[in-house]
Automatic annotation (TrEMBL):
Membrane topology term: Multi-pass membrane protein
InterPro entries per record: MRS2-like
GO MF terms held by the record: magnesium ion transmembrane transporter activity
Residues that span the membrane, as ranges: 340-359, 371-395
Function: Magnesium transporter that mediates the influx of magnesium into the mitochondrial matrix and regulates magnesium metabolism. Also permeable to calcium, sodium and potassium ions. Required for normal expression of the mitochondrial respiratory complex I subunits. May play a role in maintaining the inner mitochondrial membrane potential.
Coiled-coil region: none
Main subcellular location of this protein, as a coarse class: membrane
Annotated protein name in UniProt: Magnesium transporter
Pfam families registered for this protein in UniProt: MRS2-like
């Protein structure tokens, strides 16, 4: 009992000493409190950042800028944010159509919607536009405001690249329209209505953007292909996987853009609805201009799709070639391992024979003057013979026959 009480007293004294030491240390050194405060503040900051990233975008506000191109070639810019209800009333756009034009949405399916007598809506990856009889309205994302939604952009540099692509397309459409329909030399040649002129230029801009993206991917692919053929490494294989996923994504985008133009071309009712300033009869004999424009745009995007197909085939070729090279290296390693095993087997046979003659048993050869030479010669012969036979069989199996021997075929 006394031993138990003494042990308990020692434990209590130890706990009290530790408590007093920590209290005195915290009183003497204030940085304990500072570190605790900093850790708490960093934890709260991470939690607040997580809350900010998951806050959805306000459905009543349209974060973006609006550029308006008029038939006289003047481009006006209006900077947001805007109220969605006011945008719908001012531009006579429905709420569902405005969702297709929202520049905050990064992932969308390309679509061309025709509202008879009202407008033509273009919703592509870097083109959000509404073409009306007297103006063309382009929706461009704002550089200062990054959308924090489940599919939003968390990288500022990437968002600036996206906004630059939107603004580049608007500038391209403005410049081409002024060069083609505003100058004195070409003004008399333009007999199409304003909406068809803008639709043709938008189609060219979509094809031009896809072409630029294809060229960038092609240049990156050439670098990766040269590095893959020069030396296979983990980095080159990783880059090859990245470029393959990028080509597949670009392939899907090009196919969807091409399919959007083909869908518009396949319905005569939608083609008649493209005339916003003129009333056309419900027959297909008066749609030559529209068909030519749509076929031209579809053909341009089809050529880009062909380039993307060729690029995808090249990526698959490099992937297959890299696989063949890795298989060849693997075969060399396996052959080297088999050679080592053959040599080990040969020496093992010789060691087995030597071990039999070296047993502590009477065989009658212990007193022979040349017993050692005989045993060594026999063991060496067996070892060398097994190594030579194994190597010969290995070379025979590795031999690839590129043609079959001629066989006598039965005459009919």
């Amino acid at each position: 009992m006394s031993v138990f009480l003494s042990t308990l007293r020692k434990q209590l004294c130890t706990i009290n000493c530790k408590t007093l030491f920590l209290d005195s240390t915290q009183r003497q050194h204030r940085w304990f409190d500072v570190s605790r405060t900093l850790s708490k503040s960093s934890t709260e900051l991470r939690r607040s950042m997580h809350r900010v990233e998951t806050i959805p975008v306000d459905s009543r506000v349209l974060n973006g800028d609006i550029h308006i191109l008029t038939p006289d070639g003047v481009l006006q810019a209006h900077y947001g944010p805007f109220d969605r209800a006011e945008i719908c009333r001012e531009y006579n756009i429905g709420p569902r159509d405005l969702r297709k034009l929202d520049p905050d949405l990064r992932i969308n399916v390309p679509a061309i919607s025709v509202r008879h007598g009202k407008f033509i809506l273009f919703s592509f990856r870097r083109h959000r536009a509404v073409v009306q009889p007297h103006r063309s309205v382009f929706f461009v994302p704002s550089i200062e405001k990054i959308p924090f939604e489940p599919f939003g952009i968390k990288n500022v540099a990437e968002w600036e690249k996206i906004t630059h692509a939107y603004r580049r397309n608007v500038r391209y459409i403005h410049q081409v329209y002024n060069q083609r329909y505003i100058t004195e030399s070409t003004k008399s040649l333009s007999h199409m209505p304003f909406e068809l002129q803008i639709m043709e230029i938008i189609g060219e801009s979509i094809a031009y953007g896809l072409k630029l993206k294809t060229q960038d991917i092609l240049m990156e692919f050439e670098t990766i292909r040269q590095s893959s053929y020069a030396r296979i490494s983990i980095d080159s294989l990783r880059e090859l996987g990245f470029i393959k996923s990028k080509v597949d994504r670009h392939h899907r985008n090009a196919d969807l853009a091409h399919q959007a133009w083909l869908d518009l071309l396949s319905y005569d009712q939608n083609m008649m609805g493209l005339y916003l300033t003129e009333n056309r009869q419900s027959d297909s004999s008066d749609l030559s201009d529209v068909e030519l424009i749509l076929e031209s745009c579809a053909k341009q995007i089809a050529e880009i799709c062909r380039l993307v197909y060729d690029l995808k085939d090249s990526v698959q070729t490099v992937e297959s070639t890299t696989g063949f090279m890795l298989d060849a290296v693997r075969n060399h390693l396996l052959a080297f391992e088999i050679r080592i095993n053959i040599i080990t087997m040969g020496f093992g046979i010789g060691a087995f024979i030597t071990a039999i003659y070296g047993m502590n048993l009477y065989s009658g050869m212990e007193e022979h003057p040349r017993a050692l030479l005989y045993v060594a010669a026999i063991s060496s012969c067996f070892a060398i013979t097994s190594i030579v036979v194994g190597t010969y069989r290995l070379f025979k199996y590795r031999r690839v026959k590129l043609h079959r021997p001629n066989q006598n075929t039965l005459s009919l």
